[in-house]
Fold this sequence. Notes:
This protein is α/β, with parallel strands linked by helices. 37% of the residues lie in helices and 16% in strands. It has 7 helices and 6 strands; from the N terminus they run βαβααββααβαβα. It has helices at 22-32, 45-55, 59-63, 96-103, 110-120, 136-148, 166-179; strands at 9-15, 37-43, 68-70, 88-94, 124-129, 151-152. α6 (136-148) links the parallel β5 (124-129) and β6 (151-152). α1 (22-32) crosses α7 and α4 (96-103) packs across α6 (136-148). The chain is globular and about 60 Å long. It starts with 8 loop residues before the first strand and ends in a 19-residue tail after the last helix.
Amino acid sequence: MSVVPATPRRLIVGLAGSSGPHYGVRLLEVLRERTDVEVHAIISAGARSTIEYEMRRDPDQVAALAHVVHDERDLGASIASGTFTTAGMAVSPCSIKTLSAIANSYNDSLIVRAADVCLKERRRLVLVVRETPLHLGHLRLMAQVTQSGAVVLPPVPAFYHRPATIEDLVDHTVTKILDQFGIDAGLIPRWEGMPGPG
């Protein structure tokens, strides 16, 4: 009896133009190390600028971490259709402009269209919204996308894993993102309760 090799599941990673491209770049790095995930990336023009400015990295080298790279203007791309099956999408980071467009199905870019496809097909959509402080309009947009089925996952730092570096903080957020897709990359120690006395 022949064994049919498992087909990697597809995951879309969008990087929008807010501060904090570190989260999306690290997500791409971690997923690239796996053989069970086919990564489709969309890097907006704004994200390319923040990658260069904040990380001092070449956006083309970052894009090369994905198996397939899509132009943000290509609304005819495979991931723009629900018939192209994926496990879902993470927008990391997600700017408020992108959040607003997704909340209102304003499909003027491939990031927004691919996110809208995930919502209509009832696939997991994780939005790593990077803004603070938040006004009522921001909160309403977050509530709106949550009602549509998205998961709003701001990159809020945690300290129970005793981070020693910025990379440790980024890895915590990336772990939280991957958890939404049932992927454990072993990046941080998991919480197992407060240690006992002694």
